[in-house]
Amino acid sequence: MTRLRWGVLGVAGIATKKVIPAMQKGGLTTVTAIASRDLARAQAAAPPLGIQKAYGSYEELLADPEIDAVYNPLPNHLHVPWTIRAAEAGKHVLCEKPIALSSEEARTLLDVRDRTGVKIQEAFMVRTHPQWLAARTLVADGRIGDLRAMVGVFSYFNEDPSNIRNVPAFGGGALMDIGCYLINTSRFITGREPERVAGAVERDPKFGTDRVTSMLLDFGAMQLAGTCSTQMVPWQRIHIFGTRGQIDIKIPFNAPPDRACEIVVDSGKDLYGGGHELLTFPVCDQYTIQGDLFSKAVLDGTEVPEPLEDAIRNMECIEAVFRSAESGCWERPA
């Protein structure tokens, strides 16, 4: 087998607009089936995406012996239940973030993974993008001196009451949907876990979800200061500061698949760009890379790039931010 055969649970926009088209361009991936609880929706989605099979239930897709792996982009509260069912059907699983509603729920997947022998990974695609790999290498090589801080913002505007991101029972809200990226990338850059966490949350009076959440993650000699929002002007940016320079990642999370990405390394020579060096990364699709790396691990029988244990630690940090917002005190991840 030279390509892993994938099935997709649901016709979510993230799947049909971004992930499936990207995976269909991969060297080790082919999406051969898609399922929806409404057969007509699956049948409508399949042809434009070059998918051969359309199923009217998730169970039918999981029963297909010609499917090797499943991509799970279902709403957050369905991530663990359907990841478990897919694993028990013998399918490897790439599950959208956040992988669970809590770290306790996420831990149940460890037993499932070990019992079934399949591979399970949380889909933080940003960790595959060359701009993030370059940023981590620059930090590790001491290009900006000793690491001191990361500052990040990730936001969009959505007041649709029917949108799952605005439904608390479905794991909605800013921190679970996009703030998790701020936490994940700070852990990725440092290669460490925060010692303590502080958080502030402002909730939508109608939905009850956090519409603005700010966080401070203390890694000891380095700190992350981040804000995420579901009701703010759309924006995203990451700055990484050291003792002798800084890195500016211009589009850190939704990196475009159709044009080059840029990051700026600044020596701090002056405030007018005199120390700027522009690094440009060729056109690539982080979802294509993510799919191929996961598929390679399955085909080669090696470990997936990001183990489940990492997903659990990210959830522990998310929970600590929420606890701090309630307690008004520093909290330690579990």
Short synopsis of the structure:
Helices cover 33% and strands 28% of the residues.
**What fraction, in percent, of the residue positions are helical?**
25-40%
- Total number of strands: 14
**What name does the CATH topology of the largest domain carry?**
Dihydrodipicolinate Reductase, domain 2
The oligomeric state is single chain
SS summary, helix count: 9
Order of helices and strands: EHEHEHEHEHEHEHEEEEEEEHH
Radius of gyration: 20 Å
**Uncertain segments:** none
Strand order of the largest sheet: 8-9-10-7-11-12-13-14
- Termini separation: 41 Å
Instruction: Give the overall silhouette.
Output: globular
Structural domains: how many: 2
Tell me the layout of helices and strands.
Blueprint: E1 4-9, H1 13-23, E2 29-35, H2 39-45, E3 53-55, H3 58-62, E4 69-72, H4 79-88, E5 92-96, H5 103-116, E6 120-123, H6 130-140, E7 147-157, H7 174-190, E8 196-203, E9 210-218, E10 223-229, E11 231-242, E12 246-249, E13 261-266, E14 276-281, H8 286-300, H9 308-327
Parallel strand pairs: 1-2, 1-4, 2-3, 4-5, 5-6, 7-10
Antiparallel strand pairs: 7-11, 8-9, 9-10, 11-12, 12-13, 13-14
Helix pairs in contact: 1-8, 4-5, 5-9, 6-7, 7-9
Describe the protein's architecture and organization:
There is one protein chain. It is globular, with a radius of gyration of 20 Å. The longest helix is centred in the C-terminal third of the chain and has 20 residues, at 308-327. It has helices spanning 13-23, 39-45, 58-62, 79-88, 103-116, 130-140, 174-190, 286-300, 308-327; strands at 4-9, 29-35, 53-55, 69-72, 92-96, 120-123, 147-157, 196-203, 210-218, 223-229, 231-242, 246-249, 261-266, 276-281. With 334 residues, it is α/β, with parallel strands linked by helices. The chain has nine helices and 14 strands.
